[in-house]
User: Which sequence fits this backbone?
């Protein structure tokens, strides 16, 4: 089926003029405050700029472009400005209203530019984009199946020369849930009607004693239905999308109502959610994107990610040794910052540093006011001829420590404080979700609390406080590598067997390599499944 080659940018969840939440370790300046207040506006400007630079055919906006409940004048003005800039470049815009920006909100915006088409569910006919008097794209939010709706109106256009338009639809879990509820209500009503008819017929034809025998069945004492699992729900939702695309002859479906970036590839086409152009916090995402969608003549669709967020979040680990100083650690931080991926849209990086190392070294860093020093010395990053403002949050995670007296109470405490002893957010979340005794209100409260649980911070606090309780001199917790090396030399005596010169050096190098490999294998064996899980721990 031939198509007209085209490309468009798909963006969603822009949420114009919504504040961005960033942790501050220093005083908030006016410049930084304005940059954070304008972050979502800046991200929308980046979307518009990419549309113009890449000369796309149209921009697809799928929901939550602004929050109608905020009544923000800045959001309206920024939206109109961007749409008019696209109109000046003859770039069309298709809008799929969402939950935060419902159709009524778009209808109330005065003087929308002529290049903007808002797709309403009340309109059964799809909106079209034409090129050379030919419809190359159709966009629809209606849920009709088949080529015509219930009134006989054709909703799937057909071309006379065999070249079909690229058809875009919309789907959301909210609409899927609503359709399931309606189907359940309809099925329940049919069952009630059928049960009433059966009961009436039984009363007319059966004797009283026979009716009593049938009473338990007529009253419908059904076994409780098994709760639907997440996997079953997702499978049903996928089947719903597949049916929608097949019967609606859709090639591309905008998945709305979600903040996470998602792409599904089905036999009939692609289902895609671009995520958000600017996350409000790191709990939503580390960075924001929109998507550049290309369609070739054969209908093959490729999706390219484009960074649009003005504020990005970075999580960086810094490992320090026993001889590390604050100045040397600052140099290591600069090196790590230059290695971080960056995009043209970046204006601010909110960086969460996790400094790992021996407790005495980290204690000295804290005494020297580590967080303030980092904020002053690493205020901005100058790369590629532009500056990125840096905002820091520094946390320290001491290594497991040991005391000389292996039988002491302090060592017993240290042996108990391991990463395996701290429950992960995922396990806490599963515990909350599976507790049937919780009401919806309390479950939401607990879910919000679990979202802020930081297992590493809990572990760090327990190690620091344990050292305060049981260790009089923190220097005792420094690893003694010299004694370790002497023990190796004493326990593992090397017989030369007549080796001299280069042969002796070769043997020494082989022994060192062997010890290194053994140590690496031991480290891999010691890593527990819970440790691996924590590294990818996310809110489901």
Assistant:
């Amino acid at each position: 089926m031939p198509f007209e080659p085209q490309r468009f940018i798909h963006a969603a969840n822009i949420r114009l003029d919504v504040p961005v939440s960033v942790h501050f370790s220093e005083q908030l300046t006016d410049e930084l405050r304005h940059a954070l207040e304008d972050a979502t506006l800046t991200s929308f400007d980046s979307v518009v700029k990419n549309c113009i630079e890449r000369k796309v055919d149209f921009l697809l906006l799928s929901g939550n472009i602004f929050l109608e409940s905020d009544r923000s004048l800045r959001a309206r003005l920024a939206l109109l400005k961007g749409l008019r800039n696209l109109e000046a470049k003859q770039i069309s815009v298709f809008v799929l209203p969402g939950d935060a920006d419902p159709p009524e909100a778009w209808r109330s915006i005065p003087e929308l530019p002529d290049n903007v088409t808002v797709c309403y569910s009340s309109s059964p006919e799809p909106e079209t984009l034409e090129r050379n008097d030919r419809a190359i794209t159709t966009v629809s939010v209606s849920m009709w199946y088949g080529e015509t709706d219930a009134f006989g109106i054709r909703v799937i256009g057909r071309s006379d020369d065999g070249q079909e338009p690229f058809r875009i639809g919309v789907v959301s879990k909210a609409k899927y849930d609503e359709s399931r509820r309606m189907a359940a209500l309809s099925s329940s009503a049919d069952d009630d009607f059928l049960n009433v008819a059966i009961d009436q017929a039984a009363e007319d034809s059966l004797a009283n004693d026979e009716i009593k025998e049938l009473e338990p069945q007529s009253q419908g004492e059904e076994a409780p239905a098994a709760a639907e699992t997440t996997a079953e729900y997702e499978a049903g939702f996928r089947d719903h999308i597949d049916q929608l695309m097949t019967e609606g002859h859709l090639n591309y479906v905008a998945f709305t109502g979600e903040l996470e970036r998602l792409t599904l590839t089905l036999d009939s086409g692609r289902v895609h959610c671009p995520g958000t152009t600017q996350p409000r916090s790191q709990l939503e995402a580390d960075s924001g994107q929109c998507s550049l969608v290309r369609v070739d003549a054969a209908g093959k669709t490729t999706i390219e990610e484009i960074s649009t967020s003005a504020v990005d979040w970075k999580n960086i680990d810094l490992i320090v040794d026993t001889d590390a100083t604050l100045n040397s650690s600052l140099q290591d931080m600069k090196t790590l910052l230059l290695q971080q991926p960056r995009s043209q849209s970046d204006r601010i990086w909110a960086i969460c540093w996790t400094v790992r190392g021996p407790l005495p070294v980290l204690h000295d860093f804290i005494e020297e006011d580590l967080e303030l020093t980092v904020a002053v010395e690493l205020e901005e990053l100058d790369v590629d001829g532009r500056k990125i403002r840096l905002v820091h949050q520094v946390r320290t995670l001491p290594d497991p420590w040991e005391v000389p007296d292996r039988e002491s109470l302090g060592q017993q405490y240290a042996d108990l404080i391991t990463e395996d002893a701290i429950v992960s957010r995922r396990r806490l979340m599963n515990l909350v979700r599976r507790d049937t005794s919780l009401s919806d209100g309390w479950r939401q409260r607990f879910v919000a609390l679990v979202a802020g649980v930081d297992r590493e911070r809990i572990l760090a606090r327990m190690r620091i406080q344990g050292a305060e309780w049981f260790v009089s001199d923190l220097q005792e917790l420094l690893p003694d590598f010299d004694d370790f090396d002497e023990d190796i030399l004493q326990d593992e005596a090397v017989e030369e067997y007549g080796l001299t010169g280069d042969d002796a050096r070769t043997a020494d190098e082989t022994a060192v390599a062997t010890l290194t490999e053994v140590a690496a294998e031991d480290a891999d064996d010691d890593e527990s499944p819970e440790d691996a899980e924590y590294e990818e721990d996310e809110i489901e």
The longest strand covers residues 386-398. Confidence is low (pLDDT under 50) at residues 210-225, 483-502, 518-540. The chain has two domains: 6-173+241-307, 311-478. The chain has 17 helices and 16 strands.
